[in-house]
Structures are given as structure tokens and as C-alpha cells.
Amino acid sequence: MNLKRNASFSLRRRILAIAVLALAAQAPWASAQTTDFSASGKPITFVVPFPAGGPLDAAARILAEAVRPTLGNVVVDNRSGAGGNIGMDVVAKAAPDGHTIGMGALSTHAINPWLYPRMPFDPLKDFQPVTLVADLPNVLVLNADFAAQNNIRSVADLIAYLKRHPGKLNFASGGNGSGGHLAAELFKQMAGVFMVHIPYRGAAPAQTALLSGDVQLMFDNLGSAAPRIRDGRIKAIGVTTLRRASAYPDLPTIAESGAAGFKDFDISTWFGIFAPAGTPPAVVDRLNKEFTAALRSPAVRERMQKLAAEPAPTTPAQFADLVRRENRRYESVVKRSGAKLD
């Protein structure tokens, strides 16, 4: 009886050993296959957590087209809502195989965690950063008629006006806790001035209010503000980044305006590609290789710069470090602003 049990146990051990060897033999082949997106026949879904037509959507479509020869079919899927949380939640909960990626941004990974009391995902733990895509400067713009009537040509002029007329000016934003709102709140804190915040349902209606004179100023995305700057309907007096925007090299930064306390003023709307946490390193490296190559190509750079977006390819580790720094930074900015969303 013992002999039978021993023989049966020995047979099971041999079967288990054969299975382990078979899996080990298949592992390199399986790993190689996971990075061969074009051969799999399965498209990559590129989730954009904002509506079609905006700069993030435009950038995603430019990149999807650029990487198709090497990665196969890339389908842009707009899943907007809740400040980008809905779309990025789709990415966070997707299979970590590289076939679902998302265009996360400053709002989804640095602002929203401090703005919303309940988040559907952890912005640091539930994603694997792939590469930063671009930095998009914000710009301080005024209603052109208001600026001309009050002889406001610079940031210093605006601060002087605000100190003479506290609470008289209204500034627009695309909503409570938006990048434009927080840029203005930081400006108020650093300048020691007061303006009234008028939130709108998106940047487009906020810009409409600026054009009509319902509000006097706003911090707008440079890409969306550019057409109205060119036609003279709004006046730009400073970009919010430490570097001047390549599209407007003559426009000074707020930091170099000469206004006291502004030498470190630096705010931009960045966005980049994320995969779900747990995506294998080989897959992340392949995605990084193809998307950063696209971002460095002259054709993509030219198209991105027309959106006033500066391509900024990085390694996954560099992008992860940026996300962590910005997440910590905006905790204090949001809390000081008092902005909250349900």
C-alpha cells in the first residue's frame, strides 16, 4: 500500500516538474509577445479623460497617428467627466497589458486628489507613468478694452491697479479648482491682492465672458487663448512658466515681470501617458520608446507647437518623479484656495 502511495506521489512530482519546465520555456516567448502590439491584432485604447477638441485630445490624436506604424492601431476614446476622474478610472481598472493607456494631466493627478473628498483611484499607486507628453503654459490675459482704458500693459501695472481698487476686478475660470482658478489664487496670494472669482462650466464660456467684458481677466491655456491674442480681442501680459513660450518669445513670464515676490512663479498644464499599475516593465519600456520617438520627430513637434504645447518626452522614472512632486505641491495650493468639489 505504501509502495502505491509513494509511486503515486512520485508521479505527481514528475508531472509538476514537467509543467514548471514547460512554463519556464514559454516565459521568454510570452514576454516577447506582450510587447509586439502590432502582431497581436488587438488595438491600443488611448483614453482621453476630457471632451474632444481640446489640446489633450488633439495631442492624443497626433500621437496615435504617429505610433501606428510601430504599435498598430491606436484608438482614441474620450471619457470625460468629473474633472478627468471618470476616464482615468477606466485606465486604472483596465488589464495591465499595455492595451489600455490614458492621457492623464495636472488636474487628474495633482489637483483632483485634494479637490474631491472621494477619488475613484489613487493617482500615485494605481498608475504606471509612461512618459510626459507636453507642458502647456498658461497665460494671464485681460479684456483688451479694459486694459487699454486703464493703461495696463504689464503684470506690475495690474498689481498696482488691484492694490488701488481691491475687490473691483472679477476673474473667470473654467470652474472651481481648475488650473486657471488655482493659478489666479496663487497670484492673489503672492501679490497680496484681492479679486472676485467667477467660475464657469469650462474654459470656453469663461473666455466668452472675458471677451464680453463680464469679467476683466483670467488665466487661460495659451493654446486656447492664442487666436484671441492674435486678433487683439484680449491682451496677454505674462506667461505662467519660468521659460518664455516659444510661440510668443516676446511675451514676458510673470516671474520676470519685476513684480515683488514673483521670481519663482511657475505654473503649467502638463499632461502625459499612463498605463495601469502592474503593467510589465518590458511593455512600459516599449510604449515609452515609441511615444518618445514620436514626440522627438520634427513632424509631431511642429503639430504640437501649433497647440502651444512643448513636447517634453521623459523616461518613466522621470515622469513618475514629476507626478509625485506636483501632487505634493498642489496639496497646499488647493487647501489655501479653499476650493472643494463633491
Automatic annotation (TrEMBL):
Pfam family of the protein (one): TctC
Residues spanning the signal sequence: 1-32
Domain of life where this protein originates: Bacteria
CDD domains xref list: PBP2_Bug27 (cd13578)
SUPFAM superfamilies referenced in this protein's UniProt entry, alphabetically: Periplasmic binding protein-like II
Entry's family note: Belongs to the UPF0065 (bug) family.
Protein's recorded name: Tripartite tricarboxylate transporter substrate binding protein
Protein source organism: Noviherbaspirillum saxi
